[in-house]
Amino acid sequence: MVRDDAFLIREPSLSSFLSSFSEQERRLQANNREYNTMFGYPNNTIKTSKYSFLNFLPLNLFEQFQRLANAYFLILLCLQLIPQISSLAWYSTVLPLIVVLSITGVKDAIDDLKRHQNDNQVNNRPVLLLVNGKVEKDKWMNVQVGDIIKLENNHPVTADVLLLSSSEPYSLTYIETAELDGETNLKVKQAISVTSNMEDNLELLSAFDGKVKCEPPNNKLDKFTGILTYKGNKYLLDHDKLLLRGCTIRNTDWCYGLVIYTGPDTKLMQNSGKSTFKRTHIDHLMNVLVIWIFLFLASMCFVLAIGHGIWEYKKGYYFQTFLPWEEYVSSSFVSAILIFWSYFIILNTVVPISLYVSVEIIRLGNSYYINWDREMFYAPRNTPAQARITTLNEELGQVEYVFSDKTGTLTQNIMIFNRCSINGKFYGTVYDENGETVKISEKTEKVDFSYNKLADPKFSFYDKTLVEAVKKGDHWVHLFFLSLSLCHTVMSEERVEGELVYQAQSPDEGALVTAARNFGFVFRSRTSETIMMVEMGKTKVYELLAILDFNNVRKRMSVIVRTPENRVMLFCKGADTILCQLLHPSCRTLRDITMEHLDEFASEGLRTLMVAYRELDDAVFQDWSKKHSEACLSLENREDKLSNVYEEIEKDLMLLGATAIEDKLQDGVPETIITLNKARIKVWVLTGDKQETAVNIAYSSNIFSEEMDGVFIVEGRDDKTVHKELRAARNQMKPESLLETDPVNTSLTMKPKKPFRIPEEEPSGSYGLVINGCSLAYALEGNLELELLRTACMCKGVICCRMTPLQKAQVVNLVKKYKKVVTLAIGDGANDVGMIKAAHVGVGISGQEGMQAMLSSDFTFSQFHYLQRLLLVHGRWSYNRMCKFLSYFFYKNFAFTLVHFWYAFFSGFSAQTVYDNWFITFYNLVYTSLPVLGLSLFDQDVNETWSLRFPELYEPGQDNFYFNKKEFVKCLMHGIYSSLVLFFVPMETIYNSVRNDGTEISDYQSFSMMVQTSLLCVVTMQIALETTYWTLINHFFIWGSLGFYFFIIYFLYSDGLCLMFPNVFQFLGVARNTLNQPQVWLNVTLTVALCVLPVIGYQFLKPLFWPISVDKALSRIRECMKHPLPPPAQAKMKHIHYRRRSAYAFSHKQGFGALITSGKTMKFELPKKSSTSLKK
């Protein structure tokens, strides 16, 4: 055990240590809230919500008025309050504006209320708090800096706490850090000796008044420095003594800790990133278009005001007897200024406020489709997909980059013993009576392990020949499983007789020991000097002589044991690339056979290990043991000396075989990745896991493939090396990108002030990139970030491993900064929250790593393969529908509004409206609202099956092809053309025209009736042409709205209403007197034909003369629909010879070997401390 004085800080060390602190530092004292409150530290409350009761109204209104259209209507409302220029009532704008703001505000409030509820759920979790010498129950949110709390087994850690003592010998505490770094392997922490002696003595803990001085809150998960001052002595604190919020206590009955950081100051929350108000690219585009429309509106008003001034100067001045000027109008110039604002109000419908109401309704409806999708419902956990935010639906149809976590997102975080090779024989494949390979399924018969009472009932294996070999007593099979059951650092716990619980430092190692257990070689318990085994029902005790622990350089571990037969045996397992060099020459033939088996394992994406042994002469071992002891006691270069000593004994090994473990992917992950790649979506894996594991998963999930021209590995330890490696990769992919004449390099030399957008660069082949967190730290610096981005974006797949949560967010932000693309981040742990918040769209997997990612996400579901349905079906439909909606909405309002412009030239620019006031009121509210909502909620160009089978249909969204500035100009031109037809055709129709009875028809009200009827017929036919998926609802909305128009005008223009309210209803009998004339219907027919025929011609000719990729896909679908739909082909994984990728079954950190042999983990040496009972 380490001596107490090893933790003491002498004064010179203390002064140098304090000098490293910045001016800001945290000071606290245990059990002294009065002292700690002086510093204003926050309590343990967390907040992921945006609003509070007090700030909701101003903050929400501020966010809503960031939409220029809302600000535009506010200005319009102010203008309408001025009677001199107002030609419409003020309430015609204020009521719709209030409705829009209210609907959006209520929706935002409901969304934020859910966040408040989730926050409350976390903040009100129970915690055991030491108060006045008693352990009392309290809530998480009430914990403060300096409090001492009690944590129990399998409970999450409440805050960042300094470990004081635990139930385990030497105050060891085992933790799982899945929420922090995505790893489920066990890690160990140890309290400093001065506090470990307090154990669970509440008197000593309550009297503890140590003072801590440490670094201020930061986001570095693996670093912590501080000093504990207690009873005049000072003790150095480091990361190994700190339990972080987000960890879970494992294999430890209880522990006590001093709270250092709380709530927003915890390292978990420091890595969570800030909640931002996410807006879609279409929202940003609409803001730009509103500015364009505003300028277009102003220019129209300016032209009409000039026209009015000229008309008043030349004609109106002389007709004042009939058209008198108002008192405040002194000249034609003043009249023109007032008319400018009058037309500004009349023509405001080019951007009707109902646009935003409709957008919110459409988004809400498409969000419910996601919630209701049974194909995205995960029955085993009874969890549906959920759209937690309703403003990002169409963004799902434009994604180009997906950033995914690995553990729990791509994988199930379950390791399964799948195959093995023993003495040259292959085990794990099942054959039928004809010798054909049987595909494993739920119906496949499992091996019966009933002969083994200690077998794990959850373990499954299907090849019966291996069990038969075990039962027959095959020497090599027994030795193989004996090796697996002895060569490890797993901890065993048996609280109930026969029920073993293994705590492994890596899940791979746990899977191997569990496999050996089921086949009859049960690891039951260990001490620092012995390992107890149950071999085929017989209990045996092996003397543990040495553990030659794993590290990343050795890539292997060994144990040396003395068997009950007094033989000294060395068992070794490790990466095949390493062990092959350590084998005895006599194993050459067996090695070649095993290598073939390893290639087959690798072809299935399995994680492999080689297993070997060596029998040692007792004298040789004794001689080696002395050297080992000397190396252990060495004060200089201890690690190098130990490594050299290990190599002396780990040689001339006899090969036993190899293992293959499946890091079980979630269902459908490889097929999903293939589909996303076909849709031109790049997948980057951002993980905290080790490089070998991440690369292995990249191959098995089809992010990397063996057909690639190369995979670049960036692992430089300084900026120069990283820069060199990135440029070398880029030189291989696209050599011309390094030349000064390259367009990107030319643009960069000009040092643009605005953020420079890097275009897509095509490499000369298919490549992958692997970069670790250390190299990434340099690559993300200002002078290298563009090198990293350009290199990574040329690659088909990118794997970033050993990343911190902050680095994940930085990578996402880097792509957002320099690429004009939509990004999506998907993860399941708290370590993914930063990137989920940073991406344009955040998706949370409701997995096994807590709720933090889910609570911070925009969309949630349970399985990664649902992502393709979310994007290719719901996202694509939402984008297409929104684009159709916007194109049609702008068109119909341009056609509606611009008729006023042409009419002005025939009305003396008098700001008189063409239409009846009731038609103006109902046009967007009633007559055209339901058809466009029907289009936007139900339209499908192809169904979900074709959307998934033809991923290339997704590409138009990525290019924003269906609605952009160019399409908007087309809508404007189309609207101008239609408005010309709608005005001049009726004008010429009634000019000098008479009715059937000989009376004139050319009056204002009849003209207005003809124009508005023609307009509604035109826009109705237009939306009918836009609709590709007809339902009863569409028919009812489209034709029903047109029919309702005719019903309502007969009602509004009836004698009864007009006589009762003559000032409100002024079109007395116009409907029945106009619509019974044949020339009116000829006018309607001609108008519709002139407006619609060019559209039909354009839609027919466009795919013939200007085809895009989606047109070709749609033509193939139409061809396929003529024949019966074949069943979708299952994506087959190619079984080819992979380069061996041994993702060896160890943690990325130093193993537990030294800890085990030190005896600190052994509960028999120090009896487990009994926890003081909870006092009420």
Fold and architecture overview:
- The active site is at 405 (4-aspartylphosphate intermediate).
- Its main location: membrane.
- It is a multi-pass membrane protein.
- It is found in: Endomembrane system; Membrane.
- It comes from Trichechus manatus latirostris (Florida manatee).
- It is built from 41 helices and 33 strands.
- With 1176 residues, the protein is an alpha+beta fold.
- It folds into six domains: 56-124; 143-272, Calcium-transporting ATPase, cytoplasmic transduction domain A, CATH 2.70.150.10; 283-351; 367-409 and 668-742 and 756-870, HAD superfamily/HAD-like (Rossmann fold); 418-664, Calcium-transporting ATPase, cytoplasmic domain N (3-Layer(aba) Sandwich); 873-1122, no CATH class.
- The strands form six sheets. A nine-stranded mixed β-sheet has the order 14-33-32-31-15-27-30-29-28, sandwiched between helices.
- Strand 16 (411-422) and strand 17 (425-427) form a beta hairpin.
- Helix 31 packs antiparallel against helix 36 (1032-1052).
- It is elongated.
Task: Report how far apart the termini are.
Answer: 37 Å
Strand content: 15-25%
Q: State mean pLDDT (0 to 100 scale).
A: 83
Largest sheet: 9 strands, mixed
Give the strand line-up of the largest sheet: 14-33-32-31-15-27-30-29-28
Secondary-structure content class: alpha+beta
Shape category: elongated
What is the count of distinct domains?
6
The poorly predicted ranges are: 1-23, 1130-1142, 1163-1176
Number of strands: 33
